[in-house]
Design brief:
Length: 253
């Protein structure tokens, strides 16, 4: 063996970032809040009020236009416009609408009645004017509800312990089917006629319809017994001509 000890491929180099071995204390692991400034200040230290400086307002733009000696009309003097007076012709004004004031004949003093003569006071019952006054939006006494004094969530009150009854669990109970086998109710009831001598069975047929004929024969109600039949009468025959030859049907060969 040689005198040198193999230490592996590692060699001393500059670390990529801060490590705990470079600091004597806890280092960047513990960071105390700052005692200066207003934001994220140490809550255990007194903090003075902070004031901000306002933004600088933009300077007022002064007018840099031409002075009074520029853009003066040629015929303008110190005492006004130079020249003869000029008159303009306006259009004809529209006729004003006539007044619709009623005349003396539109009034009827004789119909005034008790309005012009002394009379006793009269009072009328006006309807309730709900629509003239705006409805009040203030909640009434019925809007506020008093909290219930029942149950465990009563504010400011001591409640007794409450117990709830849970339902029967299917796991671990006496009715749990561990073997998963069908019970007696899983099988249907078998008819005794399968495994015992069965008596003869008769079926009741439906009622058959009466035979109906297709001929249109009159029934008993078609005859009227009260109506008498007229006796048979004799009619006169037709006069035949003596020169009429008889009709011969059978002809001998």
């Amino acid at each position: 063996m040689g005198s040198e000890v193999w230490v592996g491929p590692w060699r001393p180099h500059r670390p990529r970032g801060p490590i705990a071995a470079l600091y004597s204390g806890p280092g960047p692991k513990y960071k105390l809040p700052a005692s200066t400034g207003y934001t994220l200040h140490d809550p255990s230290r007194p903090r003075a009020p902070a004031f901000t400086f306002g933004a600088r307002l933009p300077t007022q733009q002064t007018s840099r236009g031409p002075g009074p000696g520029h853009l003066v009309p040629a015929r303008m003097t110190v005492r006004g416009r130079d020249g003869a007076p000029a008159y303009s012709i306006f259009g004809r004004p529209r006729h004003a609408a006539p007044f619709l004031t009623p005349g003396p004949g539109r009034y009827f003093p004789e119909r005034a009645g008790n309005a012009t003569y002394p009379s006793a006071p009269r009072h009328t019952i006006a309807p309730r004017n709900w629509g003239l006054r705006a409805e009040s939006q203030t909640p009434g006494p019925g809007t506020y509800t008093v909290p219930s004094l029942l149950g465990p969530r009563v504010v400011g009150k001591v409640s007794a312990p409450i117990y709830s009854i849970y339902g029967r669990s299917a796991v671990g109970s006496f009715c749990e089917d561990l073997s998963k086998t069908p019970g007696p109710c899983a099988y249907p009831v078998v008819s005794p006629g399968i495994y015992k001598p069965r008596a003869p069975q008769f079926s009741m047929l439906a009622r058959t319809s009466l035979p109906q004929g297709n001929s249109l024969n009159p029934g008993p109600a078609a005859y009227n017994v009260d109506q008498h039949r007229k006796p048979r009468g004799w009619s006169f025959g037709i006069r035949h001509s003596d020169y009429l030859a008889p009709m011969v049907i059978d002809v001998d060969d």
